[in-house]
Amino acid sequence: MSAILLAQVNVWMDAVFILLFIGVWLFVLFHFSISIPKGRFRKKWIEGKWPEHDHLPVFLPKLMHWIHLLCMLALAFSGLYIRFPFFDGGRTPMRWVHYIAMTIVGLNYLWRLWYAFLAKDRDYKKFAITKRDLQSALGVLAYYGYFSDNKPHVAEYNVMQKMSYLLFAVLMLAQGFTGLSLLTQPILFGLSPREVLIGWWLGPLVGGVAVAGAWMRVMHYAINWLFIIMTVVHFYLAVNEDFLIGMDFFGFKKYPKDKLVTHGHGHGEEHAAPAGAAALEAE
User: Fold this and answer.
1) What is the pLDDT of residues 197-255, one digit of tens each?
2) Residue 84 to residues 10, 79, 195, 208, 221: CA-CA distances in angstroms?
3) How many angstroms separate the CA atoms of 230 and 90, rounded?
4) CA quadruple 90, 95, 96, 100: dihedral positive or negative?
5) Do 98 and 75 contact (CB within 8 A), yes or no?
6) How do the domains of the chain map onto residue ranges?
7) Average pLDDT for the chain
């Protein structure tokens, strides 16, 4: 019975996430098309009025982001191949690609946490959601929904950016946990990661360690699709909302020094938050 249920879940997940993925791309195209009659396309892509910045991206976060991006692409590709083997003889190599990329992502994740909380240039406060962030949430949503041309900026990242970055961090922990729960090779006192992580508590609840591992595989696959969908939206907004600083962050082209400002982060003709307010937000 459990095997039949799991097979049905997998089939439904394939259909739901593929349709959702197509829907997200259609929404992105629709959202971008609205920017033309609203004037944002002309303002940014033709007149070059992009958001202003008072500082440039730091090297180490840029490096860690590149490592993360490349490994996540490798994980998504190899993971989807394992689910849909579209050429013969690739399962074993793809599993190794998956394991190696997984290990690098895990180490990079720990490195980013160290940098955020313990490094000299620690930046965890940039991602903390404050009362002022929550108060600005409706304004940020109104801007992205084209109901307003004013985008509130009470800190370096707006509240939607902070929420999405924190969600990424949580999902990575969940993905790491579910991924390790799929490993059945004994590595610790004759026990496998699956037995150590879920066998002793989830196994009895669902009818055995093997069934528990199958449900972890379902969750792992679902989170994989969530990462893919969130990355599409993240990439679109990064390019369409702040192309110049995005080019710098990815190492393609330096942010023009003549566009650096001293009054804090702003959005061209829109009113920028005073530097003092930004400093207060960081406290």
Assistant:
1) 999 999 999 889 998 999 999 999 999 999 999 999 999 999 999 999 888 888 788 88
2) 12, 9, 27, 26, 12
3) 27
4) positive
5) yes
6) 2-58+123-282, 59-122
7) 88
Q: Would you put residue 155 in left (φ > 0), alpha (ψ -120 to 50) or beta?
A: beta
Q: So what's the pLDDT on residue 269?
A: 41
**First vs last C-alpha separation in the chain:** 55
Instruction: Record the tokens describing residue 23, joined without a space.
Output: 């829907």
Sorted by sequence, the CB contacts under 8 Å of residue 146 that are 6+ apart come out as 34, 35, 38
Look at the block and give the residue holding tokens 């108060």.
Answer: 135
Q: Is the dihedral of CA 98, 171, 156, 61 positive or negative?
A: negative
pTM: 0.85
| Residue indicated by tokens 């959202």 | 31
274: number of CA atoms within 13 Å, CB side? 3
Q: What does the pLDDT average to over 254-278?
A: 58
- Residue 143 tokens read as 């801007």
Rg (CA), the chain: 22
Nearest of 208, 209, 218, 202 to residue 186 by alpha carbon: 209
Q: Helical H runs in 118-185?
A: 131-144, 159-180
DSSP secondary structure of 217-266: HHHHHHHHHHHHHHHHHHHHHHHHH-HHHHHHHTTSSPPPGGGB-SS-SB
Q: Mean of the pLDDT values across residues 75-96?
A: 90
Q: Has residue 47 got a pLDDT over 50?
A: yes
What is the C-alpha to C-alpha distance for residues 269 and 62, in angstroms, rounded to an integer?
A: 28
